[in-house]
Amino acid sequence: MDNRIYNFNAGPAALPLPVLKRIQEEFLNFKGSGMSITEVSHRSKWFDEVIESAVERTRRLLKLDDHYKVLFIQGGASLQFCMIPMNLSVAGKSADYINTGTWSTKAIKEAEIQGKDIKVIASSEDKHFSYIPRDLKPNPDASYLHFTSNNTIKGTQFAKFPDAGGVPLVCDMSSDILSRPFDVSPFGLIYAGAQKNIGPAGTALVIIRDDMLERVPDNIPTMLRYTTFADKNSMFNTPACFVIYTISLVLEWLENDIGGLAEMEKQNRAKAALLYEFFDKSGFFTGTAAPDSRSMMNVTFRMPSEVLEKKFVAEALSEGLGGLKGHKSVGGCRASIYNPTTLDAVKYLTEFMAAFEAKNG
Amino acid sequence: MDNRIYNFNAGPAALPLPVLKRIQEEFLNFKGSGMSITEVSHRSKWFDEVIESAVERTRRLLKLDDHYKVLFIQGGASLQFCMIPMNLSVAGKSADYINTGTWSTKAIKEAEIQGKDIKVIASSEDKHFSYIPRDLKPNPDASYLHFTSNNTIKGTQFAKFPDAGGVPLVCDMSSDILSRPFDVSPFGLIYAGAQKNIGPAGTALVIIRDDMLERVPDNIPTMLRYTTFADKNSMFNTPACFVIYTISLVLEWLENDIGGLAEMEKQNRAKAALLYEFFDKSGFFTGTAAPDSRSMMNVTFRMPSEVLEKKFVAEALSEGLGGLKGHKSVGGCRASIYNPTTLDAVKYLTEFMAAFEAKNG
Q1: Domains of chain A listed by start with CATH number
Q2: B29 to chain A: which residues are within 8 Å by CB?
């Protein structure tokens, strides 16, 4: 283990150990180039292969057809919040949103700053975003319908994606991208900050459908146009090379070591089930998300008191279990169990929780 | 050398070998955290120390007083081209530019897209940007005066910065930031893509003065406002953690191993002099920049024919000298000799050039 901890951070988060070891091994001399991956030109054959691998692996894993482009854009999901209404809202049509928490709220705010006609068609704010709204009534005349597939802070996740008829879905998948297979065809745009399921911080992965590119106006700044990135294979300017390189290795691991998204989902379900089944039996640890909205990625929970929660987080860390503190805006505890987190790590955590309950319950 | 080459790439470019070795060494377990630097939270004490070190070292190296903030913003210099007019142009005042080549031209274009009132007060386009304009007549009523301190493509550099009276200077220093000491006080904003002198690709370093922050309008997207980054120490959202970490190590090397900017300039001058003095004696290799505008960072040159240039680049590479091809827009050859490039590397290059000339001249 090289004295490594079990890392339950919400993002930046754990990466697969074989990926980290490979980066370390080839760090001074990338594939015989005589240079570090951080030193090769983005216009070189070495980096061409890297970005090609990242794009093609994404295409294969998500079964993308030729109507989709895979882009890497710096600035995280937060920059996407403003690029989406700027590029994709159509005059005379509303920009529709489902509000399931902090990240959706921020996305809505950026559309508001731009003076867009916004419709929030559903929200779970009435119950502190502890659930995913059902029985949606999407508006058939919207420019798009935006939602956040997984809420990292509240530990909720869409089990089934909304059906918006022909209206393009636009989705922030930052915290569950590539964690399970799904049908991409209703989506006009999918975006994800890399630092949870697929790599280190420093780029967003953006998947965009042809017809969305046709909406991009000419009069917005070059670096804020999706067409700029689509036309130049994400290399209009120097991209976040090291981050894209790491993503390419994580996707290689996902294809070759894990065996693809169906197998990844199976493992993710098994990890989450361990924790949720434990909560359901425990009178001490309580899950905070509504049972039908529980996230496979971020498992949020409380204990009988904040004093106990603090003790739990500190004792867990001393046992090599890190990152279990809840988001500062909500308190409590959280175990983020993205793709790279192993079943063993989750088993070790539940064993520690059982022992902690026995001692303190 | 671990089979490493002498790397004369224009960017991404060579990094100091001791920095690369340290990254490699601590890659699986950053400072006893039990996590890779790519896995630690940006809200952790580990990353706090990293970004604090990067900021404080920049402050010390450039002798910044409390009126300046040091920020890290993703998207490279290209995103800054649009953020500058969006944030800093004042109604009723023109946005002024000096045009010394491709990058200045791109910066001007982004101000045009936004419909700003632009004045190009000087340009070297008449001679294919082979020189830096002199005898400037800055306009005392401008919002700012923008210039590019070093042109990577044409190998030209401002030896002395323009005096614009009280008008704030705004400068793209992507290719010569921290290569020499200078007086920061006339500058309202300095920006630099990291991937040349200070780190890997994936962030811009932005140095902004208080009074510029007061100009930032409220009605622009959150992620495009300098105040968003200034108010949250560049962590409104997850920053490019690995890139900032590497920058912090490069700046540590610059302070401790090199000994600061005055010493760095001395070394950079010595490296450039080796090449320019060689050209001045050679009848075979010819520098392309006007002698009074020669860059210490990017040394551009031609040979008697394109066939010879191609042969030179190929033979150099087989001798372990990489990245000597000129920018595709201008052809010819270029040796980029940023801070991390050693005097030994440049000596080896000039020896190779002399031998090549003897054989082919």
Answers
A1: 18-258 (3.40.640.10), 260-360 (3.90.1150.10)
A2: 2-4
